[in-house]
Amino acid sequence: MAETLWPPHVAEIVGGDLAVAVCYRTPAGGVVLTPVSPLGQHDPKTATVGFSTSIAMGRKLHRLKADNRVALLYPAREHGFADSPHLVLVQGRASFHTNPDPHWIDSVEDEWNRFLVPRKRGRFWDWLGHEYYALRVPITVDVNRLVTWNRQNGSDEVVVVGDDLPRRDPPSQTPPPKGKDPHIPVRRFRRRLVRSRHTLLGYVGADGFPVLRPVDLTPDGEYLKVAGPGLPEGARCAGVLAHWFEPRLKGQGQAVLTGWLEVGDGQGSYATHTFNGYTMPRVGDVGFTLAVGLGTKTRYRQGVRRGQVRDGR
């Protein structure tokens, strides 16, 4: 994929968005969506984009190692450095080293300070932030396909760079063994859903790559009504991400759902099977550093107990 083939607004968006959604596959044929801050990492010459994660998120890395097909959606301009109204979907294959690179954080210090809260230094802060800063794994995505469209002007015009889009919806899947009805009541995540500025749906496309698209979600009893263009007809496992964020992510919240999606005549109904989420109120630099340091350290120790992380690997 040559540099000249990337639409001019793509570099602005992938180089300037503060928060994007990453979607990766699960063994059950579903997907999980999670927000990340990619720090503008991209290279049109090699047709790659990048992001990173702490080794504390070992389950994500295990999933990517088992199936490296991923998608990234750049849906939001607020608090970033791009102005284009377009949305950018990147589909490709992820690669990474299984061990964290303790020097990577130093190599992206300028980008980190541009997008996020600058790293605090000192004996206490180095201990607190060790898992969050020093034990990060950089991930590179080799781009198979770039899809861009403008949701604001009401146009259906879609520009595709790279592999052609599949011409059909993915086939319906078999319901999960525990059934397709809701397992999690909507009341558990309703507040986060209402507050979120971005609600995204993900599923496995006809060619095996995850697909991400913005949708509108409305509670309907114990289900969620799903509305938006391009919903895949039929029934399948699907993931949902509802999130919001403040400048430099110094305030954020999310609801990450997995469940069962059924679509007929363009109308979707979603049954939630799992839910994870948190809310971090708006804080200052010190509060942010404390929150992410303690949170990541806790996740790391949980990963050690589960056997997902060993000796910082």
Could you please describe the fold and organization of this structure?
There is one protein chain. This protein has 313 residues and is α+β, with helices and mostly antiparallel strands. It has a single domain, classed as Electron Transport, Fmn-binding Protein, Chain A (Pnp Oxidase, Chain A), CATH 2.30.110.10. The protein is built from eight helices and 15 strands. Strands 1, 2, 3, 4, 5, 6, 7 and 8 form an eight-stranded antiparallel sheet that branches. A seven-stranded antiparallel sheet has the order 10-9-13-14-15-12-11. The longest helix is centred in the C-terminal third of the chain and has 22 residues, at 285-306. The radius of gyration is 19 Å and the shape is globular.
